[in-house]
């Protein structure tokens, strides 16, 4: 049987591929429920927006739950150049997500 640690050993830089894939698959699975909730507010959110919101929302939830991840470690160190790259990527993903809202 394959363990969770075995699946998490495959990485791109400090980021586990398994965790990223599961996050995106999870948002694809729950996006119909999220769309139903947003329809109550008369907001139509396409799937591409949910995909763009996945990483920014994960940062928010990791901040709320005070979990330490490689991404959160990068965001906690503004003196390192990776902080600015990650911040730009997160802001760009958020912008594209909001731009696609109807």
Give a quick account of the main beta sheet: strands, pairing sense, barrel closure: 2 strands, antiparallel
Alpha-carbon Rg, integer: 15 Å
> Count of helical segments?
5
Shape assignment: globular
- Structural category is mainly alpha
Helix content: over 70%
Question: Into which percentage range does the β-strand content fall?
Answer: under 5%
The end-to-end distance, rounded to whole angstroms, is 45 Å
Average predicted confidence as pLDDT: 93
Strands, total number:
2
Point out poorly predicted stretches.
Answer: none
Strand order of the largest sheet: 1-2
Order of helices and strands: HEEHHHH
Structurally, how many domains make up the residues?
1
Please summarize what this structure is.
With 102 residues, this protein is mostly helical. It has five helices and two strands.
Describe what you observe in this structure.
By secondary structure, this protein is mainly alpha-helical. It has one domain. It contains 5 helices and 2 strands, in the order αββαααα. It has helices at 4-8, 17-39, 47-65, 70-75, 81-99, and strands spanning 11-12, 15-16. It has a two-stranded antiparallel ribbon. Strand 1 (11-12) and strand 2 form a beta hairpin. Helix 3 (47-65) packs across helix 5. The longest helix has 23 residues, at 17-39. The mean pLDDT is 93.
């Amino acid at each position: 049987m394959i363990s969770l640690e075995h699946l998490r050993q495959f990485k791109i830089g400090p980021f586990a591929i398994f965790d990223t894939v599961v996050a995106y698959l999870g948002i694809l699975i729950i996006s119909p429920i999220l769309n139903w909730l947003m329809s109550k507010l008369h907001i139509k959110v396409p799937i591409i927006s949910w995909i763009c919101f996945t990483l920014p929302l994960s940062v928010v939830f990791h901040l709320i739950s005070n979990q330490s991840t490689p991404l959160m470690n990068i965001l906690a160190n503004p003196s390192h150049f990776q902080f600015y790259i990650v911040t730009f990527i997160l802001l760009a993903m958020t912008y594209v997500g909001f731009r696609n809202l109807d």
